[in-house]
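Morning run. Coffee first, then this:
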Amino acid sequence: MRTSQRLENAITKLYIAFHNNELHPECCKSCAVGNILDRTESWKYLSDQHGSTTLNYLGNMNQMSNRRFGGYTPLELLHIEATFLKACGYQLPYSRHQNSKPKNPQDKEMLFQGLSEVVAFLCQLDQVPNVMDYTKLFEVENDRPKYELEY
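And here it is:
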């Protein structure tokens, strides 16, 4: 299956961040979008609240200018981050003091769940099948695997 360069780059960066323990939902440089954008935090100025999918003035200006960051529009970035936070158990928009959040934001299983949802969303944005969907591997036809593994 062919995927876009932005999807390949995003998945690679998230994979590296996950395995290097550089993924943290509460840090704008270490969250899903922060890692996709090379561990920068400039994207946080596109909205007024972490986890919000509403662009602020600066976000709207960049969106209307068709500006892209890592291949993604400002609105796509906000939706990527919201997907990650929600899948990790955060009440959105995230506020350190008011909304519910997981007890351990570094829990690997929780982070994996968040990344799985993000990858599914990234694939949806690029209109390709979810690269993490392994269910086809277990489909059978006449007691034989329906699909072959590609090595």
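The mean pLDDT is 92. Good start to the day.
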